[in-house]
Amino acid sequence: MVERRGARELPSEGALIETFRRAFATKDPRVRVGIGDDAAVLELPSPLVWTIDDSVEGVHFDRRWLTIGQAAGRAFEAALSDVAAMGAKPLCALSSLQVPASATASELRAIRAAQRSAARRAKSPIVGGNVTRGPGYRFTTTLLGHVKYPVLRSAARPGHELWLIGPVGMAGCGRCWLERGATPPKGALGRAITRCVRAWQEPRARVEDGLSLDGRKHSAIDVSDGLATECRTLSRQSGVRVELDGGALRAAFDPELLLAAEKLSEDPLGFALFGGEDYALLASGPARTRPKGARVIGAIRRGSGAVLVGEGRARLLRGGHDHLAS
Amino acid sequence: MVERRGARELPSEGALIETFRRAFATKDPRVRVGIGDDAAVLELPSPLVWTIDDSVEGVHFDRRWLTIGQAAGRAFEAALSDVAAMGAKPLCALSSLQVPASATASELRAIRAAQRSAARRAKSPIVGGNVTRGPGYRFTTTLLGHVKYPVLRSAARPGHELWLIGPVGMAGCGRCWLERGATPPKGALGRAITRCVRAWQEPRARVEDGLSLDGRKHSAIDVSDGLATECRTLSRQSGVRVELDGGALRAAFDPELLLAAEKLSEDPLGFALFGGEDYALLASGPARTRPKGARVIGAIRRGSGAVLVGEGRARLLRGGHDHLAS
Q1: I need a surface site. Which of A17, A102, A120, B321 has the fewest CB within 10 A?
Q2: Which residues of chain A are within 8 Å of residue B141 when distances are taken between CB atoms?
Q3: Do A140 and B52 touch (CB under 8 A)?
Q4: A168 touches chain B (CB under 8 A)
Q5: C-alpha distance from A288 to closest chain B C-alpha (Å)
Q6: What is the DSSP letter of B72?
Q7: Cα angle vertex A47, ends A41, A48, to 5°?
Q8: Is pLDDT of B128 > 70?
Q9: Is A47 on the interface with B (CB under 8 A)?
Q10: Burial level of B94, CB count in 10 A (0-12/13-18/19+)?
Q11: Are A44 and B46 a contacting pair at CB < 8 A?
Q12: Cα(B162)–Cα(B144) distance, rounded to whole angstroms?
């Protein structure tokens, strides 16, 4: 019904929900009732992990630098990343969409397509949600997952190695490039910049990597706000000292990050520590249990606080991202 | 930490989450990990019902007529009402809060207190959530519940009685009174008006009534948008004709609604059909299975559409509330 209306005319709530119901239809046997009743009805294993995340236009995303489909996809991946960081297998999702009066049918199609793709990648059907109007787009995603031994932020222990799983810094570098508004050159540098920009525009939650962790041995947190903040959180919640080794972290950087950051005259370490939105996993565990793909970037010690070592004198990690700061 | 700051200064995200973590602490043995990790970890029975609902300042509520605590409480009850309408027992909740830059510490305290009260009444601890800033307050609540035989919108059958469980029209009448801005008089009329205003400001989801329904025999939907819309939805989703009997509905009206509507020179039937936000339950089932407290207000027939009978000639029910309409 959306298609037959003018491009700038919003379909009715009922018609819009119907388009989502069709787009998100699933044959998953765990879904007894999907979109369309007062609530979804599900047959799920226990224990469950459960998270909710929001992405608000003008706060978490800016449409100068993202298509609306990219914004919708990122919002889903950010919630999914919380499930990944618990070491859990995603099961299903609800999506709540806030739509501004300026919304167009093609924007709504792009949102549907992006959410459907993200849900399929995660094998997590969207089984319900809500639609409201409001002063801008807003994507709220709540996900359920299953895990036998949840991987907690409070489980880092002295003697653990500190691990990075997945690249960090690229998303922050990509966003910085977009903010400076320059056109990427051709060649290797251009490809490096494009990859950083894509890392920010189209992140992917590390679900498979999360499943390689085990809550009886490992701790983990996802890198949404930058490594500085995540190291401090791990330290506080586990009651340990987190030592991040700057040299080891630099050695883990993607060569394309080095290239793109150099062109911006920025230290890639800054993007890794404070950029955020990478959705890598910061984890810890005994050396003998290190999963494939995990890079050692430091160690867990007795004590408190998060410190950067191996870059001259040890420095306390501060700063990072406060979602309420203006 | 909130208390020690200036009244108009917003605490940091971490400090705010800490106040919520303390306020919502629970000893519920089903909650293995509550607020503070990437996701909550829960041991829950299956099948589950799962819903999400949003309440956006300037769209769903207006602070001229509601305290911020009332707005937060209503938002929780609206989501809870979806669980009730499935005949499910609520289990636990996540709460996502959008906070404007103008927020004060006392507003945040009132929100916490209202959400904690609503969660306690529902025996549904708030086990996690999210905090973001944005252009106004916004409350998003997602709830999980447990039900053996979910009560569906698609289960109305020809021969069923149509039931109303709980009062309708009072919330719409109360809101109308607030919009007109008059001061309620003293005496019986004043008390009637105050009760209608309270019905709108402080609704209560009908969880116990929902539990009296059985998905093998009954259909149900909650009255959030007004009886006209809910009758049409029941008709469409069950493939039946819903006959709403105006006389029987009028006989079910609370005497205080009649008094308050008369003073406004409004037909209370209009508030019941189009007012919404009552969170009564509209249900159906065979006469011999009618639960205590259910009033017969019509019948389910073969055919299609929702009609109002017993008020002169039968009329198709139209109109109601579209959440996307401006």
Answers
A1: A102
A2: none
A3: yes
A4: no
A5: 25
A6: H
A7: 55
A8: yes
A9: yes
A10: buried
A11: yes
A12: 27
Confirm or reject contact between B152 and chain A (CB < 8 A).
yes
| Angle between helix A187-201 and A255-263 (nearest 10) | 100
Evaluate whether A221 touches A163 at the Cβ level (below 8 Å). no
**A243's tokens:** 């030592």
In A, minimum Cα distance to B103 occurs at: A324
pLDDT digits (tens, 9 = 90+) for B53-91: 999 999 999 999 999 999 999 999 999 999 999 999 999
HSE at residue B80, side-chain half, CA atoms within 13 A, is: 34
Q: Among B218, B174, B217, B177, which Cα is nearest to B195's?
A: B174
Task: Cite the beta strand spans of A100-175 per DSSP E.
Answer: 126-133, 138-146, 161-165
Q: Which amino acid is residue B315, in one-letter code?
A: R
Confidence of residue B235 (pLDDT cuts 50, 70, 90): very high
* Interface touch A220/B135, C-beta < 8 Å: no
The CB density around residue A154, as the number of other CB atoms within 10 Å, is 14
Q: Give the closest residue to A326 by CA, choosing from B13, B262, B250, B62.
A: B13
Q: Is the dihedral of CA A310, A311, A315, A316 positive or negative?
A: negative
Tell whether B102 is within 8 A of chain A (Cβ).
no
Please give the pLDDT value at position B304.
Answer: 96
Crossing angle for the helix pair B68-85 and B105-121, nearest 10 degrees?
30
Q: Inter-chain contact B39–A49, Cβ cutoff 8 Å? A: yes
Q: Which DSSP state fits A271?
A: I
**Tokens matching residue A132:** 């409201």
A289 neighbors A223 (Cβ within 8 angstroms):
no
Cβ contact, residue pair A12, B325, below 8 Å: yes
Sheet bearing A31-33, strands edge to edge: A31-33, A40-42, B48-56, B138-146, B89-99, B126-133
Among A residues 222-281, those touching chain B with beta carbons less than 8 Å apart: 222, 237
List the one residue out of B218, B214, B223 whose CA is nearest residue B78.
B223
Which pLDDT score, from 0 to 100, does residue B14 have? 80
Two tokens at A5?
A: 């209306």
* Encoded tokens for A27: 């044959």
Query: How far is residue B244's CA from residue B251's CA, in Å, rounded to a whole number?
Result: 13
Whether pLDDT at B41 is above 90: yes
What tokens were used for B46? Answer: 């299956």
Pairwise CA distance, residues A299 & A161, whole Å: 5
- CB pair distance less than 8 Å for A50 and B40: yes
DSSP A27-86: --TTEEE-BTBSSEEE---SSEEEEEEEEEBTTTB-TTTS-HHHHHHHHHHHHHHHHHHT
Asked if residue A152 lies in contact with residue B35, where contact means CB atoms within 8 angstroms, the answer is no
Write down the ipTM of this complex.
Answer: 0.92
* DSSP state at residue A125: -
Q: How far apart are CA A275 and CA A257, in angstroms?
A: 12
d(C-alpha B85, C-alpha B72), whole Å: 20
Give CA separation, B214 vs A8, B124, B281, B286, in Å.
Answer: 44, 21, 13, 11
Question: How far is residue A306's CA from residue A13's CA, in Å, rounded to a whole number?
Answer: 48
pLDDT for B325 equals: 52
**Has residue B4 got a pLDDT over 70?**
no
What's the length of chain A? Answer: 326
Residue among B14, B47, B324 whose CB faces A131 most closely: B324
